């Protein structure tokens, strides 16, 4: 197994102890109020027996973007609460391949009380073609997350 170097370009409090996100080598490209964009290069150990991206890996990348989008960017904003997934729906639309750049873009769609609804799109593109809004790459996953804010323990 190769060691992935974290490439966090933007800070977020949950990244301090997020070892899964670190292992995936996710770079945080954008953080906003209810939004986050992360990316990584699909490595060999992220593939399934068919030689394509393991669905669980694409799910995990989307889930990390979801977590960043639905949690405050500074500890003071959280007021001793955390926001966790209450449920998700995921649709795998196309395969992703070793060496491709995987980018997950998360955005809040609704927020009511302690509940939220987020859409996360996961794109694959050649490693030498970074994700842009104008040329996002091939859509490989649609992920809809339902969040719940709870007291931090």
Concise summary:
The protein is of the alpha+beta class.
What does this protein structure show overall?
This protein has 153 residues and is an alpha+beta fold. The protein has helices at residues 19-24, 55-70, 75-78, and strands at residues 27-32, 35-41, 81-92, 101-112, 115-125, 138-151. The protein has three helices and six strands; from the N terminus they run H-E-E-H-H-E-E-E-E. 31% of the residues are buried. A six-stranded antiparallel sheet has the order 1-2-4-5-6-3, covered by helices on one side. The longest helix is centred in the middle third of the chain and has 16 residues, at 55-70. The chain is globular, with a radius of gyration of 15 Å. The model is unreliable at 1-8 (pLDDT under 50). The chain has a single domain, classed as Hotdog Thioesterase (Thiol Ester Dehydrase, Chain A), CATH 3.10.129.10. The protein starts with 18 loop residues before the first helix and ends with a strand. Strand 1 and strand 2 (35-41) form a beta hairpin. 17% of the residues lie in helices and 41% in strands. Keywords: Hydrolase. Pfam families: 4HBT. GO terms for molecular function: acyl-CoA hydrolase activity. It comes from Sinomonas atrocyanea. This is Phenylacetic acid degradation protein PaaD.
Give the ordered list of helices and strands.
HEEHHEEEE
CATH class category: Alpha Beta
Helix % is 10-25%
CATH-defined architecture:
Roll
So what's the overall shape?
globular
Q: Could you name the ranges where pLDDT drops below 50 across 5 or more consecutive residues?
A: 1-8
Q: Trace the largest sheet across and list its strands.
A: 1-2-4-5-6-3
According to CATH, the homologous superfamily is: Hotdog Thioesterase
Q: How many distinct beta strands?
A: 6
């Amino acid at each position: 197994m190769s060691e992935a170097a974290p490439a966090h370009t933007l800070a977020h409090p949950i990244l301090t102890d997020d070892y899964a996100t670190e292992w995936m080598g996710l770079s945080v490209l954008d953080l906003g109020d209810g939004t986050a964009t992360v990316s990584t290069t699909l490595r060999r150990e992220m593939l399934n027996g068919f030689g394509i991206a393991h669905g669980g890996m694409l799910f995990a990348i989307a889930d990390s973007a979801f977590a960043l989008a639905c949690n405050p960017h500074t500890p003071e904003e959280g007021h001793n609460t955390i926001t966790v997934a209450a449920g998700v729906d995921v649709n795998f639309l196309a395969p992703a391949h070793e060496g491709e750049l995987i980018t997950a873009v998360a955005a809040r769609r609704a927020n009511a009380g302690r509940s939220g609804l987020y859409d996360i799109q996961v794109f694959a593109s050649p490693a030498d073609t970074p994700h842009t809004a104008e040329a996002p790459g091939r859509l490989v996953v649609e992920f809809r997350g339902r969040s719940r804010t709870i007291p931090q323990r």
